[in-house]
Amino acid sequence: MKYVLMIFVMLSLGASAGEHGGKKVEHGGKKVEHGGKKVEHGGKKMEHGGEGMDEDHECTEGEDGESCDHEKEEKGKESKKDKEGSLKMKQDRQVSVEDIKSALTAYIKEKSDDKGIFNYIDADRNNAPMKLKFVKIHDPVRHMEKKGQYFACTDFEVVGQSGKLHDMDFWMVPTEDGMEIVSTKVHKDPVKKSKKWVKVPRYTFQGEEMVDVK
Fold first, then answer.
1. What is the pLDDT of residues 151-200, one digit of tens each?
2. How far from chain centre, in Å, is Cα 128?
3. Domain boundaries in the chain?
């Protein structure tokens, strides 16, 4: 009986070893958590479409009394053309961050009166007149590669109302001797919340296309 029992145990061990014979492989080949190209936020709406041209800009919370809604750039990722502050256009012309900012600053100055007031007619609000004072250009400025355009977002303050800011967007294209502004839109309007002005968006971006905020 003892010998029969020993033979039975040996046969059982042999069968167990045959179930997972050889080297253990959890997943054949290289382990891939998700097949295909990794997309961190597929289809997520972005405040500004296009490719950022200022890699040193770091978006922080609470800027101008609002949550930062500029997409955060992936740390550690470097691009030679971003590092040099320029992108090459199809016509082989270099466009730098400074080109964009200088052209926009000159355009705003040209369109402002002797008192520095930028008079804007808001076509999206029944041609309502707006009297504004230029405050700053946001970083980063952007390259809309598919459309061959460049883009900058700005702050303008309502004349006589400190801290009441509109967010204005400008699109431009390169010319032989500079940059030409081809479109201007009010991106955000100031709304008072808890005794503080907060900019509320009219639209956002999905890729390079504008999407109305409902």
1. 999 999 999 999 999 999 999 999 988 999 999 999 999 999 999 999 99
2. 29
3. 44-57+81-214
DSSP per-residue letters across the chain: -HHHHHHHHHHHHHHHHHHT-SS--SSSSS--SSSSS--TTTT--BSS-SEES-TT----TTGGGS---SPPPPTT---HHHHTTEEE-TTS-EEEHHHHHHHHHHHHHHHB-TT-EEEEEEGGGTTEEEEEEEEEE-S--EEETTTTEEEEEEEEEETT-TT-EEEEEEEEEEETTEEEEEEEEEEEEEEEETTEEEEEESEEEETTEEEE--
CB atoms within 10 A of CB 74: 7
Q: Poorest-confidence range of 87-96, 174-183, 203-212?
A: 87-96
Query: For residue 24, what pLDDT band results from cuts at 50, 70 and 90?
Result: very low
